[in-house]
Specification:
The protein is mostly helical. It has one domain: Tetracycline Repressor, domain 2 (Orthogonal Bundle). It contains 10 helices and no strands. Helix 2 crosses helix 3, helix 5 crosses helix 8 and helix 9 packs antiparallel against helix 10. Pfam families: TetR_C_11 (PF16859), TetR_N (PF00440). This is TetR family transcriptional regulator. GO terms for molecular function: DNA-binding transcription factor activity; transcription cis-regulatory region binding. Keywords: DNA-binding, Transcription, Transcription regulation.
């Protein structure tokens, strides 16, 4: 986790016991029912049978609460580290985090993506709480790949790291096609790995 994201979590103590998971699950339910724009802390507190004070002790805004809830909703938390011994193995191990948001309809995620462009709080929360820890894991994956000699000189690691999520988002929210495991493997085998090796797709 980055220093910024880590600081955010240190400043906000976790809710005790299983209550945090219950609150996040309730947030997902409210998000599905109302969408991001109409979601309020009051609505989540009511759905979770919790006080607003409890919510605000853990999350300073609805943006932070929603971002944490969608991170958990995927059912595939970002691991602290992944090291299978190969770039392909690492990317496949991480691919569950690139798939769909299983508990959220596409319309809900499309609304969130739209809100990202006009809600500064949501942008910040998404960068710090969703993207930052995932990018750290991905950076370590490519660092080890470079140490193993799996990357060609001059490989654009930043661009490669963005390729799989970009394809998934395009398929899901532009074309309306649910991403599959086969798609993820095709992107890894026919786009990312050839580019990492400096070779052309044949």
């Amino acid at each position: 986790m980055t220093d910024v994201a880590d600081a955010v979590h240190r400043q906000r103590p976790r809710v005790e016991g299983g209550r945090e998971e219950e609150i996040l699950a309730a947030t997902v339910d409210v998000l599905v029912e109302l969408g991001y724009d109409r979601l309020t802390m009051d609505a989540v507190a009511t759905a979770a049978k919790a006080s607003k004070a409890t919510l605000y002790r853990r999350w300073s805004s609805k943006a932070e609460l929603v971002v944490d809830s969608i991170s958990r909703a995927k059912g595939c938390p970002v691991p602290d580290d992944v090291d299978t011994g190969s770039l392909r193995g690492d990317l496949i191990a991480l691919s569950c985090d690139q798939g769909g948001f299983d508990e959220l309809p596409m319309s809900v995620m499309a609304g969130l993506l739209t809100a990202l462009h006009r809600d500064a709080d949501l942008q910040e929360a998404f960068r710090e709480r969703f993207l930052a820890p995932r990018l750290e894991v991905m950076s370590r994956v490519y660092e080890r790949a470079a140490e193993r000699g799996e990357l060609a000189p001059g490989t654009d690691v930043e661009l490669l790291a963005q390729t799989l999520p970009a394809v998934v988002v395009h398929r899901a929210f532009v074309l309306g096609i649910e991403p599959t495991e086969d798609l993820i493997l095709r992107v890894i085998d026919h786009v990312i790995l050839p580019a990492a090796r400096g070779s052309q797709v044949r």
